[in-house]
UniProtKB/TrEMBL annotation:
Biased composition (Polar residues): 1-11
InterPro entries: APP1_cat (IPR019236), Mg2+_PAP (IPR052935)
Cellular component GO terms held in the UniProt record: actin cortical patch
GO molecular function annotations of the record: phosphatidate phosphatase activity
Pfam families in alphabetical order: APP1_cat
Region annotation Disordered: where it falls in the sequence: 1-25
Annotated Phosphatidate phosphatase APP1 catalytic domain residues: 211-363
Protein name from the UniProt record: Phosphatidate phosphatase APP1 catalytic domain-containing protein
Amino acid sequence: MDKSRQLLQETSLERTSRGDSNFSSIERSLPHAMGAPFSMPLLDRASSWLGLHNPLAHPLDPATEEVWLLDNTAYRPVHIYPHAQQPWQAEYVVAYFKKDVGKDVSDAVANIADKVGLGNEGEDRAQGEKTISERLQLFVATIAPARSVNVRLPGVGTKRLGPGGRSAVSEQVITNLGEQQDGASVSIEAIPAETTPHGHGTTHFAAPEGWMVISDIDDSIKITLTSSPIGILRSTFISTPTPIAGMPALYTHISTLLSPTWFYLSASPYNLYPFLRPFLLAHYPPGTLILRDASWQDLGGFLASLTQGTEAYKSARMRRLHAMLPKRKVICVGDSTQSDPEAYGDMYRVFGAGWIRRIFIRKVVGVEGMDEGVKNQGERFERAFRGVPREVWRVFEEPGELYEAVEALKGT
């Protein structure tokens, strides 16, 4: 994403929060351009501007290159006028990389370890630095633009995806995905399979009608401490990913009761896909993880991605989800640390009660660096949900508060 546009989309609440927690200063002091994004042939670099239409692109080399196959959701397009049922289609997103094993990130490791005070409270600093080093590898991989990959799609056969563009990411829609039932899931398998170090991707099938959950991740269902730059660094690079107590059980209950299709919408950059996907699979119903197209190799940009322009980003992604599934009944789940209330309120005012049926906002308390007097005040929520019926939105602290509200949706 263009950093200048991200800055222009920063809200006054985000600007105040970032200033109070000294985000800009921390971002400037973090390593930048840790990898070698331009250590690639000049022809690949130049032709990558042509994206999917690049005539000079070529298949990835399994010996030296790899891909990430991101999960997606297939849908049937809905027409304004009565129309024959449309075939399934889905957007396939692939990221292409060089196989860089064990890059030296010792300076960046020391930088992060010192910032978060690693070892100050009896922690094993050596083990902590090992964890930081492993997770930093996601930020230093050299991208491989102008590459394509063949994948095997059940019921379809072999399809070519790509080539990737300037950021070595390809996005393309494939139609006629065979006969599948609502709620089905099928694998996206690269050929050869060993080019996908993080495993195959998954396509989830969602019929035009039914329920849908759009859930934030950070501090909504996963402890991230997004109000503090140091908290973000620690939770991302050192701590074991931890779910918010009670949220896995609540989501299981929603899944059993309403059988929704799931979207996990986060402002985290795509670098963290291999970090967040296993966490979601371990604790929450399977669904599509949507992350931000931010800098691959810039830790300062990583912090900004989570805290700057998030309202505009989430609103834009929700518009795309509405275009895919306009007849679904939506439950939005977020928290008070960032701009979830404002984004969800905006989308309700745009699409009305026919799409968004409930909005649940977790009130985050007791987090260092968060101005609860601003972010948790009633006036903020009233302002964010201006024009939204009071029965549609609810602020909660404990997941157990929502069971009755969820059960009331059955049959509606």
